[in-house]
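Try this one yourself first.
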């Protein structure tokens, strides 16, 4: 589509609306992580013509609008892969190569390692919203720290070929967007690409229904995250074991209750109504995870609760020290204990909420639409960007 035609269509459609057909791709919808929550909001807000994902397991992820537009790969037919598509590690590149290429409009890839490989041809423009370059390739010690020797050996064996595939996928993009400054640095190191930073939005509704859960103590710290080694929940458990006067609630990660000290309580998966209550009721959201951005502190902030997090990674973007929370200097037990015990009892909940409002869904969509519109009006020379064999 020529630039002058696009501009005429834009005048008819409005200044903030994408004219050409939109395709949204996401790695897989099989879990309730921050990337999946953001991708679901993008689908609802931008109403793409086509949604592409390797595997879709509705009971295990967030509800998606426009389910009639969702296109899955051949891996969808294998039930045990719908539970955990990482088991198809060696087949995921093939799955993304087998999708029909997109030949027109904009392709928006919500990616942490796979969806940016969706092929484009002709005048299609590919914009990647990168949550992080693939951890198993570029941060294997973090990603695999809780995996056995067999898995580590398999990843090490496949890594050279996967690196070639991943870097070719990155080079096929027209525009790269990072969700944080630390991810932008990782994109530069991994691919040599300069990425625009657009922080993901807070999507929890602070005015939504809250459902109380039975806690062991009225005053508690809260940590929220899936069972991944880089979340470093074990470091928190170890620290709280040495602080019997403090209480910790873990959400999103299953632990053997018998292995935990009495002042640590696990809920595993909870509903959004229960999570809102936990955020609103906790002393603070606490985390020493290696986060790419770190949405959970902002979700807690939206409910009026401050955050106590590691001074590293994406938390440097999402926490305003002294306003919305404080930092823990390292993952050592001594530093965690000192930070918890010295955490202020009083915070301005209004200031905490106002900080979260800076990361609203409207602000996120406005900035992302500007990038998409700019990409749509860019050079549209016919090209073949299918990944090399």
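Now uncover the answer:
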């Amino acid at each position: 589509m020529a630039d002058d035609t696009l501009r005429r269509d834009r005048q008819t459609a409005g200044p903030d609306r994408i004219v050409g057909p939109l395709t949204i791709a996401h790695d897989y919808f099989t879990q309730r992580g921050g990337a999946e929550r953001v991708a679901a909001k993008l689908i609802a807000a931008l109403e793409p013509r086509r949604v592409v994902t390797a595997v879709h397991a509705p009971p295990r992820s967030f509800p998606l609008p426009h389910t009639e537009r969702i296109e899955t790969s051949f891996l969808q037919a294998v039930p045990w892969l719908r539970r955990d598509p990482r088991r198809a590690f060696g087949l995921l590149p093939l799955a993304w190569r087998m999708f029909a290429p997109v030949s027109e409009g904009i392709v928006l890839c919500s990616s942490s390692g796979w969806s940016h490989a969706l092929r484009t041809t002709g005048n299609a423009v590919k914009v990647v919203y990168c949550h992080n370059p693939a951890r198993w390739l570029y941060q294997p010690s973090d990603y695999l720290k809780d995996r056995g020797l067999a898995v580590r050996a398999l990843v090490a064996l496949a890594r050279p070929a996967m690196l070639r595939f991943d870097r070719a996928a990155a080079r096929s993009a027209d525009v790269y967007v990072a969700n944080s400054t630390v991810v932008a640095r990782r994109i530069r190191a991994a691919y040599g690409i300069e990425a625009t930073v657009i922080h993901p939005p807070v999507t929890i509704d602070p005015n939504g229904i809250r459902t109380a859960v039975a806690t062991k103590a009225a005053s508690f710290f809260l940590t929220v995250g899936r069972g991944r080694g880089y979340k470093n929940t074990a470091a928190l458990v170890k620290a709280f074991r040495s602080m019997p006067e403090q209480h910790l609630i873990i959400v999103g990660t299953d632990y053997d209750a018998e292995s935990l000290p009495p002042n640590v309580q696990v809920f595993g998966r909870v509903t959004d109504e229960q999570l809102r209550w936990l955020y609103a009721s906790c002393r603070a959201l606490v985390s020493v995870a290696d986060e790419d951005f770190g949405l959970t502190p902002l979700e807690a902030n939206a409910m009026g609760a401050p955050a106590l997090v590691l001074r590293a990674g994406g938390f440097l973007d999402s926490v305003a020290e002294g306003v919305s929370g404080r930092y823990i200097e390292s993952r050592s037990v001594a530093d965690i204990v000192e930070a918890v015990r010295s955490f202020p009892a009083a915070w301005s909940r209004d200031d905490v909420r106002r900080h979260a409002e800076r990361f609203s869904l409207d602000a996120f969509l406005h900035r992302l639409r500007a990038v998409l519109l700019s990409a749509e009006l860019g050079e549209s020379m016919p090209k073949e960007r299918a990944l090399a064999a």
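Discussion: The first helix runs from residue 3 to 13. Residues 146 and 229 are 5 Å apart (CA to CA).
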